[in-house]
Known about the structure:
By secondary structure, the protein is mainly alpha-helical. It has helices at residues 3-27, 31-61.
Amino acid sequence: MTVASNVKQCLASLKGIESQLSILALNALDEEAKTAFHESMLVIGDIKKDLEYRVLELERLEPQYKGS
Length: 68
């Protein structure tokens, strides 16, 4: 598996985690838990943005990774 494939797979996993944290934040009854889930979702969102940028960089620098 190429580096680009690994990064894209990681990105897909992070999107799923972000989605699950959002659902947990919406469904939590305890305000402290709701806040913790929401803050975790925001952190994952920032990491996701960094990885999306990295994918673009990989595709720009290594054209063979584009679309894979």
